[in-house]
Amino acid sequence: MDQQLVNETPLVTYKRRYGIALVILAFSSGCAALVYEVVWFQLLELVIGSSAVSLAVLLSMFMGGTCLGSILAMSFAWRARSILRLYAAIELAVAICGISILTVLPHISGALIRFGGSDLAARGALAAACLFPPTICMGAELPTIAHCFRGNDGKLAWVSYCYAGSLAGGAAGGLLAGFYLLRVFDVNVATWTAVAINCMISLSALLVGYKLSPVAHRPTVHAKAVPKVGRAASAPIYAAVAASGAVALSAEIVWTRALSLAFAATVYVFSMVAAAFLLGLAIGSTSAGILIRQSKIPPRIALGWGQIFSCVGLAFAAHVLTDVIPNSSIVVSVGPWHVLWHEGLVSLAIVLPCTVAWGMSFPLSVACLDSNGKHLGHKVAQLYSVNTAGAILGAVGTSSLFARSIGTQRTVQLAIVIAAVAGMAVLISATANDVTAKQPLRRIRYAECACITVGVLLLVWDIAPLPGVLIAYGRRSAEWIAASRVADTGHIIYAGEGLDDFVAVSQTGDGELNFHASGKVQASTSTQDMRLQLLLGHLSHLVPQHPASALVIGCGAGITAGALLMGPAVHQIKIVEIEPLIPRIASTYFAKYNNNVMENPNVSLTIDDGRHFLATTNERFDVITTDLVDPWVKGVASLFTSEFFELEKQHLNPGGVVTQYIQLYQSSPDVVKSEIATFADVFPNSVIWGNPRNGEGYDLVILGQAKPVNINVDDLEARLTSPRYAAVKESLRSVGINSAADLMATYAGSVRDMTSWVQGATINRDRSLRLQYLAGLALDDDEAGSIYSQLLSRRRLPSGMFLGSAATLTSIERGLQHPTGN
Asked: What would the mean pLDDT of 561-577 be, rounded to a whole number?
């Protein structure tokens, strides 16, 4: 007997090396896949838009391809002479697809826009054309690896480890892309990095197949025959796997949305949440492998209780999000990387309890249906496709329906119920289909399910909606709560969840209204903010000669659009807003301040991503103005790229102007330099207008024209004093601008003055979107005063820009020494 053990030890070691090698391959493959996913989503969002509907289309196409790939793998793997050669070919195909998309997409983006337009089905078809080839290959990877373990001892456990390796690799790839490759480089470097990984995997798979694979195909002599699982017994397993995928993706979307409020919606937060989610799944899959190999607990029982445990995890996560985080202050003085590290740990604490349970679901379901591994590859492919199909339903349903219709609270409650029902169905099937189970055991099982039902109902009842303070103030919620205990900081009069964003309205103790989006104040009726919003609107229609039509990208509180509407020459305004809820809020709460712009017959509203609208319309405008949320919000940086500014320029009528809001607070010199340099790259004759607060910087308006800007101040004064412009003059007077000279005194310099200051600044381009990475690290900075001082130190009064009498020009020079807002 001892001799037999000695003879078997090298074989066991050989198989272990083989399994470890495949786990490493799976890890590397998952890493490359997530890098690709981040890059492809970034590229395709530029073409089909970044609205929730567009993202749902992209996500469903990506996951649909993996689902189809897992189904196709069932037929190809069985016919392959060498499984690892097939796997190597799949990895090589993914690399070729990655290179193709990177190379071809910029050249066909025009065709995508032209033929796709605003039609959702066409957008989905075009996204599928780009994503299906590589994702089909990705979906075939895990089932192909599963075929490698046919006849190997502990095969089910090794499949679990490979699945865990793929998920852990995905977490690593998401962090690699989000924190390094795209922050430091661009989509080109990120893609070629993933391509290099795929090529290394392909070569390594061939090497592993040559050195180790023969051992894996030796039949197991003492394999125990296991009865085939019938349809009645397998149905609860498939249902549980599908429900697990649906609930998991639904929860991921809910957590990402909620944590983007709590931590700020930067690209780093999105990367952290995705990585934490995948890491939890990997831990769960590894745990399932150990359980399958060493525990005597039946897989069906473990699977059922795993679903039940996920209900508790969902309730725990909801409690942290609604009760703990809003009352927890974030120490921002320690630096952005320490803050991100803290936020990453909190994200892990929220998602791990559930994701570990969901990560166990897939391996345990395989063990339930094929415990001896006779049809391992086939079952892995089947269950993987079912799980992915459920994930598609959960993701699309939550993105396009639940988040808007029933809100976060009801979505979480529904997820808990679905998970509980799936878990109880599996537990009941464990005894109902076991002929050896005694009647008392079945009664105990039913009693357990009754207790579970009561517990689930209590959990569902205890789920609270997201607090209004979190929706309004986000990461500053605790500060607002603490301040409200000391003084009257006002109250929140509305808080709602939209399809793309969270929106709130609050009223201060002084009666001023604040408009909140993305967890912070984006507009208000305070004098400071009103001056900026009116400056942005009035400059847009006063500088051009014949501003008949205007495009406003970003509705906000509607005050900028309302200022444009006051211009007597403006006859048509089109507002493009990505979030359907925002125009209703502007109409309901800010009509008094925005000239009731949403009800005006000359104003039309389009719900779309601003970039996608411009790319798909043939309209031209005399004025294009963008009143956007902060550039650190994920996706907003695509409206700050040189390609987008070029798109605006193409849609301007001769003599038209483009105006853009630039914030100085919660920003850094590098961020502001990047914004100005990128705008000046397309509009080299740009002019900057300032809106200081107490003599220090607060925010800016940058104005660009195709030709040099020339303003006859005397003519402008004559217009403002005419009866037709009485409303405009009164609007400007309400924020301390009493004349045309006062308005011109907000001049903060031309971009030509800033040439030396912005030298070496990052130009924000579609292929990098570097601005969102810069801004994401600077959102806690307080350098507005220093930035504005640097601008003013380079400001020169340009000859030829301001035209008028000597007295008028002298008045402007005097105003520049004491600008409005001091």
From this structure: 94
